[in-house]
Amino acid sequence: MRINSWIKTFFDNLYDGILIIDTDEIVKYINPAYTRITKVTYEEIVGKKLREARPGARLPNVLTTKKPIAGVLREEFGIEYSVNMSPIFEESELIGAISVVSNIDDIYRLYRDIDKYKSKVKSLENRISAIQKAKYTLDNIISVDISSEEVKNTIKKISQKDITILIFGESGTGKELYANAIHNESNRADGPFIAVNCASFQGNLLDSELFGYEEGSFTGAKREGKMGLFEAANKGTIFLDEISEMDLEVQAKLLRTLQEGTIRRIGSVKETAIDVRVIAATNKNLDDMVRDGMFRHDLFYRIAVFPLVIPPLRERKDDILPLAYNYIESFKNSLKKDIILSREAELMLYNYNWPGNIRELKNSIEFGINMMEDNEIKYNHLPVRVQNSVKKTHIVQRLSDKVKETEKQEIIKAIKIFGEDIEGKKRAAEALGISLATLYNKLK
Fold this sequence. Notes:
Layout: H1 5-12, E1 17-22, E2 27-30, H2 32-38, H3 42-45, H4 50-53, H5 59-65, E3 69-76, E4 79-90, E5 93-103, H6 104-131, H7 146-158, E6 165-168, H8 175-185, E7 193-197, H9 204-211, H10 229-232, E8 237-241, H11 248-260, E9 262-263, E10 272-273, E11 277-282, H12 286-291, H13 297-303, E12 306-309, H14 320-335, E13 340-341, H15 343-351, H16 357-371, E14 376-377, H17 384-389, H18 399-418, H19 422-432, H20 436-443
Parallel strand pairs: 6-11, 6-12, 7-8, 8-11, 13-14
Antiparallel strand pairs: 1-2, 1-5, 3-4, 4-5, 9-10
Helix pairs in contact: 14-16, 18-19
């Protein structure tokens, strides 16, 4: 057996150890790595029968069986290593056998690195999965008003039916919240939930986001191409918010996807099958847009299989105060103090028309919290637009509340005048015409 110079150069530079024997079991070659790993020198082994130099060697067995042996662990002179063995054929004739030797420490280190990268990949997968999960359920939808309850009951009925849903609702009514709830009520709840605001992209940008693209499809495209959001939402739900802002060309591709159940990346001829439920939403009148040629009529009928109308806040007034107190509760946790609404503020919130719906209500509560002087939001702490639009007759204060407020102000004044020590409180109670015990009760 001869080893030509090119192969010898190749073997000499390998990190793993190489040992080659001929059919007479004579060692014809070892590379420097073999010496490094096994601590056997060239003179000790080359030109000799392998079993004479290395008792217990299994490579000669390969000459007999003509079959490879993988993953053999060896230990010689306290040195551990792993050996893979294979016969060598030339034109179907057996001419020898080869051992590839790896340092066991290197293998252990490789396993540790693999485990570390597996852990990182798993962590990344979990983070991606968490990002793609729908955050809200029906329990997160506050509903006291009968119209809100009807919407929730409808969602319970339609969520399990795997149909396309078109949500109609004014801006700020929480359409994405309802889309989340539909997904989590459906049999796709364990799958991804991908939300896309169609107004955030123009023309081809939305096309590439939804359907992806192949390498080199257009200037600026990523070298490796990109998966589209429909592919990312496979086995789950995609929520297309503000679908009325979608370009007509993209509407045509969306229609084909809905009809065929496939997508085609930009620059590709390959159709990829997908299983995605579509929930769309709009605050526009799509009937008018269809009539004016701004929205495809065939797509409209395809996405509006089940229209779901979210009533504006002014039409579900019984939800206003529960929603307000829900937002107050979240701010209480962050500010770590109690917050209350005065009766006048409650009446003003209830009677305001809320053109910005739930979003405007939340902002108004946050505004009031930043404007309040103690821990009570009064009507004059609310945004001016809210104050100006509600007639003062709507915020007439109950006498009991007015008396309580007056008492509070007079007690505070008396304490400031006479002092907060026991003697001061006695004099304050006398000035107010009440007993000291009554004063302590009211101070509490």
